Amino acid sequence: MMTSLAPPFRKAYPHFVAIPTRWMDNDTYGHVNNVVYYSYFDTAVNAQLIGAGHLDIRAGAAIGIVVETACRFHRALTFPETIDAGLRVARLGNSSVVYEIALFRAGDDDAAATGRFVHVWVDRATRRPAQLPDAIRSALRPLCVAPESAR
Amino acid sequence: MMTSLAPPFRKAYPHFVAIPTRWMDNDTYGHVNNVVYYSYFDTAVNAQLIGAGHLDIRAGAAIGIVVETACRFHRALTFPETIDAGLRVARLGNSSVVYEIALFRAGDDDAAATGRFVHVWVDRATRRPAQLPDAIRSALRPLCVAPESAR
Amino acid sequence: MMTSLAPPFRKAYPHFVAIPTRWMDNDTYGHVNNVVYYSYFDTAVNAQLIGAGHLDIRAGAAIGIVVETACRFHRALTFPETIDAGLRVARLGNSSVVYEIALFRAGDDDAAATGRFVHVWVDRATRRPAQLPDAIRSALRPLCVAPESAR
Amino acid sequence: MMTSLAPPFRKAYPHFVAIPTRWMDNDTYGHVNNVVYYSYFDTAVNAQLIGAGHLDIRAGAAIGIVVETACRFHRALTFPETIDAGLRVARLGNSSVVYEIALFRAGDDDAAATGRFVHVWVDRATRRPAQLPDAIRSALRPLCVAPESAR
Asked: Is the residue at A61 inside a domain?
């Protein structure tokens, strides 16, 4: 149903973030609620933007706005597991970035979930499209899995 | 990027659920966090399953497991708005159901977000695919927008 | 263990906010997770501040910072219930406000939970204590259950 | 307002759990929402019960139900910080346990927040009070800061 798919194995990902689950991530059915997977995506992306890209989420002139996300759920995650979130950049555009993300249980090479996460960068005040800041671009380039698109 | 899209206008939806936002739905950027939209999807679907379909989420023999979701974000939502979630069924299969959902701000006919939400029904204990329970099928049939697929 | 207690019956509360539960509010034990009750508190308080007090959460000069909360859990809440949150002001100070809150299941006069929520108002930029804005004070005065403390 | 207070310094705590913050933990005011602190409490307690006490959250005969929590907020926490949650047991009763918890920013000895978390153990099916399971008692005894109450 989605034409592009994040790969479901570890070696496809150049960068990982460890995300411990929380008690309340589990829902009535005893596994991590589907909604929460997107919080892992969100956290993996923004941790990279802040840590490597020095994004100033309080006062930076440009911010990343989410315009599309998607996830396929392959197997259950459960508190108190710690999840390894693999992150890569499928497209590094002029003002948008397409991330591919896979979530792995400890020791598993088959992803429990695979997803997409698309940011468009906008001016914080006007919310109109803005150029991807240079520091962000530099931080994301090592995560690219394909040639950078023309600017 | 997704081949099928939920329509972004109200008249496409036979059923609506009102979902008040909460203070903590807003994130650092002052709008509802992308993750939370999926909680609105989840709530709209399950409220219908419980309310009209008499789903017993504690002890019913079959439960709906989420296998795929997706969302496109068209405009911001913000606490303290109340959201109208439009719900319809794009495919009512033997053991799976594809929902299309759109989120509307009060008074807007253009959706703030549109998404997909795919359930596969499984046996609660074994987590193997199960037939969609009859009461659930009856509750969902009025939400179908296309002929029911052969059983 | 707490010296002051919010009363556990409806008639003690001059103001109510209806808060529908969400699917993911339920945890592994099949009832609303204890953490989420505080989200109901937070939402009831801020809905009043924004609705009646015209608080500008994006740009207002003063903001309310939470310095203390507490909750006693008397009976379970469960999705898909809608909760009635009763709200009153136990102390309306110069820069702080003490709220008492009770959560009721539909039709119940005995509270499912009772709690306290204490705001200190601060300057948005410096985070130093600020006077409670006049519009907020006016919005809260009808919720007071005791004489306003000297200003 | 609370008669007992969790101590706000590290050396008071025999056990720590590292809890990375998440993007959506931050609210409109740019810091971790007050509600989320309780999720850190919940996670620290249950991680210990499952890890050291072998609590079976899916099928164990007895479960811990939260009957009271409280928190004082001393300073802001902000994503992407990792929090150190200090945990100790103030009272290990026949069927109830009183935890004291403090949350520390990395490198800080002054707690950002201090709180209480009270569990009553009940039978999973009947929800009537049950004896604290022996494995749980053994797991919690090293966290006790006062003589165990008579059984």
From this structure: yes
